[in-house]
Specification:
The chain is α/β, with parallel strands linked by helices. The chain is 33% helix and 20% strand. The protein is built from eleven helices and 16 strands. The strands form three sheets. Strands 7-8-9-10-11-12-13-14 form an eight-stranded parallel barrel, surrounded by eight helices. Helix 4 links the parallel strand 8 and strand 9. Helix 10 (278-290) packs parallel to helix 11. It binds phosphoenolpyruvate and manganese (II) ion.
Length: 343
């Protein structure tokens, strides 16, 4: 259920409603918008209905949340959108984020060079995997803790906040120490125990859509994180499996406006893993930005031909500034402004 407070409701009235919701064993998730506060009551609908919240001081109305996803639902925010703040960079709303960096952390030189070049080109955040989900157990699995150390060094030098993937809850502590945003990969989208663990960790989360997941399944996965009290979730479209084999995955551009209709959470697009090929990355990025994505997460490498993984799709770092400029212009078409150190 959703309890919409009157614009004139006081904080005491909001607190009284929260206490009442919790008295029946439900959880209260207040969302304070510009105009009104809305409180999501998540629990047994019958129990909440019996509380008689309609007549409570400061309450405007009580409405059911019709979708199976509740806390991620656009309905809960009444027109407001979630804006996530990461070290002064804003993600969501009218802000556009450019998250760039190599697929994986390979060496000190490769990581620091990539970080310097994307920072100079106007990136908002730096990406790089220390723990890699590889299709083959015989492939390079990432540098692990040594990779995290190199990411920390890249941040110390460039000031760019770090986005890095967590695959196993046992690595949560070292990842939380270095990451500003925890990435949950496509293959882990429905690893519910991991989602809940990351929800409790409290850091912003970039949640990737599973290879064959519907948008509703993606939003239900986000719900596992939100339910733990972590409101800072961004959704990431990264291409889905279709019958087409001419490229790696099909980037579902329609997901951008549809997710924004269904949810208040920021929507980020990963053109690199969808495309699998460098030449496709720029056109897909421009299309995503113009379609209203809140950001792009893109793979960039100083020497893609030497990359340990995903070489063919990684942008050349020396072309990044030019690429970023074009993406910034496409985002402006959708009314968004690049959010980085200077903006
Ligand atoms: C990645 O971004 O490094 C990655 C492995 O992506 P995905 O989980 O979308 O395949
Ligand atoms: Mn990759």
């Amino acid at each position: 259920m959703m309890i919409v407070m009157k614009p004139t409701a006081t904080e005491e009235q909001v607190q009284a409603v929260i206490a009442r919701i919790e008295s029946c064993g439900a959880r209260a998730h207040p969302s304070r918008g510009e105009e009104v506060t809305v409180i999501g009551a998540i629990g047994d609908r019958e129990h909440v209905a019996r509380l008689g919240l309609e007549g409570h001081d400061g309450v405007e109305q009580v409405v059911p949340i019709l979708k199976p996803f509740k806390l991620s639902s656009a309905q809960l925010k009444v027109g407001d959108r979630t804006v996530i703040e990461v070290d002064g960079r804003r993600i969501g709303g009218e802000h556009f984020s450019l998250i760039a960096g190599p697929c994986t952390v390979e060496s000190r030189d490769q990581t620091l060079t990539a970080a310097r070049m994307v920072a100079a080109g106007g990136a908002s955040l730096f990406r790089g995997g220390a723990y890699k989900p590889r299709s083959s157990p015989y492939s390079f699995q990432g540098l692990g803790q040594e990779g995290l150390r190199l990411l920390a060094e890249a941040k110390a030098e460039t000031g760019l906040p770090i986005v890095t993937e967590l695959m196993d809850a046992r690595d949560l502590e070292p990842v939380v120490e270095v990451a500003d945003v925890i990435q949950l990969g496509a293959r882990n989208m429905q690893n519910y125990a991991l989602l809940a663990e990351v929800g409790r960790a409290g850091l912003p989360v970039l949640l990737k859509r599973g290879l064959s997941a519907t948008l509703e399944e993606l939003l239900m996965a986000a719900e596992y994180i939100l339910k733990e009290g972590n409101p800072n979730v961004m959704l990431c479209e990264r291409g889905i499996r279709t019958f087409e084999t001419a490229y790696r995955f099909t980037l579902d551009l329609t997901a951008i406006p549809v997710l924004k209709e269904l949810s208040h959470l920021p929507v980020i697009v990963d053109p690199s893993h969808a495309a699998g090929r460098r030449t496709l990355v720029e056109p897909l990025s421009l299309a995503a930005a113009a379609a209203g994505a809140d950001g792009i997460i893109v793979e960039v490498h100083p020497e893609p031909d030497e990359a340990i993984c995903d070489g063919p799709q990684q942008l050349r770092a020396d072309g990044f500034a030019e690429y970023a400029e074009k993406v910034e212009r496409a985002a402006a078409v959708a009314g968004k402004v690049l959010s980085n150190e200077t903006a």
